[in-house]
Specification:
By secondary structure, the protein is of the alpha+beta class. It is built from 22 helices and 16 strands. Helix content is 56%, strand content 15%.
Length: 659
């Protein structure tokens, strides 16, 4: 039944006529479909309830449906953010970058002041903060908590998430003074964290913190757990990828090292072949140094155990220092290369050893890599063999020269033909002009001097050997010499030998004979050279060289006498003058010498002395008073002149003796 308004008595509108409730429900559904905030929905529902458009049950249902829609929308947005986060994290390959991304994303999603991640150190039983985002103090960034202690330690055990609304005031949590100090310094109050699990093992914890006290919601905890799950997976993936990349890098490095080793072996094989070829060639030492210089691409020097360059080879002149000699001795003892420095320059030395004998040392002008050290060590072995071969050859040659010198200085006519053939092996012939040199050195330096002089450039004619108590040299006399007068004179008198030995710290004197032709005259030439040497020693001119022309008659006379005679002669003839000059600092002996050298001419003598003629007269009068006027002329004059010439030889040297 219906009333006059057309409404049924049971309150249900007739079919085809929409009621207010139906109209309100449609609008309500449209609002919920487009999305409406809880506040706006409540305003609308209140108006409709007052107008009777809906009842309380419908309003309650609308509220529940709107809340569910908002929760679904929130969860959908959260899932989308988590998916994006997981995608980003798994796309990062560097462990450090993953760690930083995790805490940065966590802090952004939770909206906290600080986010941080710890890793477990099971050896020490601690969990330590590895990376932070938002922390401002070093104390907080370096917190270490024992497992099970505080929020961090409790979460890191992996039992469950944990939180504290106000950590420093929370007596339900255990505390450490160091961690509490760090939390207070950072101003942290509320803390919440979840464990990080990977492959069934807890590897650490992910935490957030705020600088105001509050309780984190269950939604925050759930979100943190979701982030932690993705973070642990991403972290493990990055670690595996990093380890794999490291393993591949190590594998590639090992492969490169193997290739380099193979190349080094090939180079050593080639070097061995070339070293053997060098060993079989003549003049192997220079060839060996050239090969080493080429292989090492740096200068290489060959020196004796005393640091001296071997004959015919150059050196830097610094290898006789204590540091160089000590390094060479250490290398010989260890059979290995040794580094050292001289005047700020870096060197590497490798000694050649045969048995317990140090033969020589190879020195390279820089510190070498292991591969180049192998080249140097291999070369030292070849050098040892080469030096032993050379020493054997030199010893054989020396024995021949030793016998030959004895035979040449005491020739026997029945052996003349054989003697000529033997001498011809060393560039000596009966028709050549020859000189004999006698080298005087101290007993302790004689063998070293012999070793130095024996290492002459290959092809140099002549023989050198020990004869009686001195070293004897017989060699051709080169009359036509293109060298300057000074160098030619040094060669003729033997001064070049003195200079060469002096460079090796050996003091020597050399007496040289005049050139002679014919082996039969060598004995007399040897006697002459020996007399010159004795004259040098009598004149105390050690370290000089001379021949008969350089010494003059007085010098040669002195050489035929004992050394004390020189002192006796000087004392007898010039004693008062020498004493006067020594006491007064005058030059009376020099004045007498110059006077006689100028033939007694006063003006010429004064000019030579650079004094006035009157001054010269005064000096001559003083000399007359001291040794008597007959010194200027007569028989006494000869004795004084001989004494003056000996004095000049002793004081000014052999080269000035005749000037």
């Amino acid at each position: 039944m219906t009333d006059s308004s057309g409404v049924r008595s049971d309150g249900i509108p007739p079919a085809g006529i929409p009621s207010a409730a139906t109209k309100g429900a449609g609008e309500l559904m449209a609002m919920l479909d487009h999305g409406v905030s809880a506040a706006d929905l409540e305003t609308t529902l209140s108006a409709w309830l007052e107008s009777g458009a809906i009842d309380q049950s419908t309003a309650a249902a609308a509220r529940r449906l709107n809340a569910q829609l908002w929760e679904a929308s929130r969860r959908e947005g959260l899932l989308r953010v988590l998916y994006d986060t997981a995608t980003d994290l798994t796309g990062i390959r560097d462990v450090e970058a993953v760690l930083k991304a995790i805490v940065r994303r966590t802090r952004s999603l939770i909206g906290s002041d600080i986010a941080y991640l710890s890793l477990n150190d099971y050896d020490s039983g601690e969990s330590y903060v590895r990376v932070t985002d938002g922390a401002t103090t070093a104390l907080f960034r370096n917190i270490r908590m024992p497992l099970g202690e505080g929020v961090l330690g409790a979460v890191a055990t992996g039992e469950a998430p944990a939180q504290s609304p106000d950590y420093l005031a929370d007596e339900s949590k255990s505390h450490l003074e160091s961690s509490d100090t760090a939390v207070a310094a950072e101003g942290v109050r509320a803390i919440m964290g979840v464990p990080l699990r990977a492959a069934g093992k807890v590897i650490g914890a992910l935490l957030v913190a705020d600088r105001h006290a509050h309780q984190f919601s269950s939604d925050d905890v759930a979100l943190m757990e979701s982030i932690g799950t993705h973070a642990a997976v991403a972290l493990e993936n990055a670690r595996y990828i990093s380890e794999m990349a490291g393993a591949l890098s190590r594998l590639d490095q090992a492969q490169q090292q193997n290739l380099a080793h193979v190349r080094a072996l090939e180079e050593l094989s080639t070097l061995d072949r070339r070293l053997m070829e060098t060993l079989a060639s003549t003049g192997s030492l220079p060839h060996l140094l050239n090969l080493l210089t080429e292989s090492l691409d740096t200068p290489v020097f060959l020196v004796s155990p005393m640091g001296e360059p071997l004959a015919g080879l150059e050196s830097e002149g610094e290898f006789g220092s204590l540091s160089a000699l000590s390094a060479a001795e250490e290398s010989a003892a260890r059979r290995a290369a040794v580094r050292f420095e001289v005047k700020g320059k870096k060197y590497t030395v490798m000694s050649a050893v045969a048995g317990d004998q140090h033969l020589a040392s190879l020195i390279v002008a820089e510190q070498l890599s292991p591969a180049r050290l192998a080249v140097l060590e291999r070369s030292a072995l070849v050098l040892s063999v080469s030096l032993l071969f050379e020493r054997t050859f030199q010893d054989a040659q020396y024995r021949l020269q030793l016998e030959l010198i004895d035979d040449l200085l005491s020739p026997r006519s029945e052996h003349a033909a054989a003697l000529g053939r033997r001498a011809g092996q060393f560039g000596l012939a009966n028709h050549l002009q020859l000189v004999v040199r006698v080298v005087g050195v101290s007993d302790d330096q004689r063998q070293r001097a012999l070793s130095v002089l024996r290492h002459r450039p290959e092809g140099t004619p002549g023989i050198i050997a020990l004869h009686e108590s001195h070293l004897c040299i017989i060699e051709p006399f080169e009359r036509r010499d293109s060298r300057p007068n000074e160098a030619r004179g040094a060669a003729h008198t033997g001064q070049s030998i003195v200079d060469e030995l002096k460079r090796r710290r050996i003091t020597a004197s050399v007496g040289t004979s005049e050139p002679v032709t014919g082996f039969a005259r060598l004995s007399a030439a040897h006697t002459e050279a020996h007399a010159v040497l004795r004259a040098l020693q009598a004149l105390s001119r050690n370290g000089e060289a001379a021949n008969r022309a350089a010494l003059g008659t007085a010098g040669m006379l002195l050489g035929a006498m004992d050394s004390p005679f020189a002192g006796q002669l000087l004392a007898a003839q010039l004693g008062p003058l020498l004493s006067y000059d020594e006491r007064r600092g005058t030059q009376l002996v020099l004045t007498a010498w110059t006077f006689h050298e100028n033939g007694g001419a006063l003006q010429e003598a004064a000019d030579s002395l650079h004094i006035h003629s009157n001054t010269l007269r005064q000096r001559l009068d003083r000399i007359d008073a001291l040794i008597g006027a007959p010194w200027r002329r007569g028989s006494r004059s000869l004795d004084v002149q001989v004494a003056l010439r000996l004095w000049r030889l002793k004081t000014a040297g052999v080269s000035s003796g005749g000037s």
